[in-house]
Amino acid sequence: MMQEGGGHYEQKQKIVVWDEPFFQGKRHEFTTDCYSTPERGFSTVRSFRIESGAWVGFEHCGFQGQQFVLERGEYPCWEAWSGSNAYHVDRMSSFRPITCACISVQEHGRSQLLLFEQENFQGRRGELSDDCPSLPALGWGGSAVGSFLVCSGAWVCSQYPGYRGFQYLLESDSHAGEYKHVWEWGSHAQTGQVQSIRRVQQ
């Protein structure tokens, strides 16, 4: 997942994982994608620490299932990463770095996201360059979004206001930043319900 000419990322992304809660059991460090924790000697991951960079974890192997955007800090148990979701996920089976996440405050301020009422960039359009804890409060009618165009940076959309519920990661360096259909948001995306959005920072 290294970007062209982006060798500095290799030094800036590191996750330490354990196969038991509260940093117990088998331990391993990763600086690149992990497609399947069982293939790397872990039946699952139940706690971890993000030492640098931003990462996205997945419920299932192969980057499938619920997504969890993980920024710097400690995650000792499942409540730390999925406590606000519709149903809890007490393990992760694959994860990867988010290479287009902003590194500096200056980059963070240049993030831009366009959202559309309908699929294929149709209907009413909105534009974000800052975090939005409530789209309805901002005046976005309804609870659904049909499509997204990520002009720069990485963003995480949440099902409910206050960054709660299912998460959907949108990246400027994936799909060429174009998310024309709900199913492109992730394998767990069932509806276009999005009511809060924020930027991802390393």
Automatic annotation (TrEMBL):
Key word DNA damage present: no
Membership in a protein family: Belongs to the beta/gamma-crystallin family.
Signal peptide extent: none
Residues of the Beta/gamma crystallin 'Greek key' domain: 13-52, 53-99, 111-152
Keyword Lipoprotein: no
Source species of the chain: Bambusicola thoracicus
Protein name, as recorded: Beta-crystallin A4
Entry-linked InterPro entries: Beta/Gamma-Crystallin, Beta/gamma_crystallin, G_crystallin-like
Domain of life, per lineage: Eukaryota
Annotated keywords: Eye lens protein, Repeat
Assembly information from the UniProt record: Homo/heterodimer, or complexes of higher-order. The structure of beta-crystallin oligomers seems to be stabilized through interactions between the N-terminal arms.
Coiled-coil ranges (or none): none
Biological processes, Gene Ontology terms: lens development in camera-type eye; visual perception
Function: Crystallins are the dominant structural components of the vertebrate eye lens.
GO molecular function terms noted in the UniProt entry: structural constituent of eye lens
Pfam families in the cross-refs: Crystall
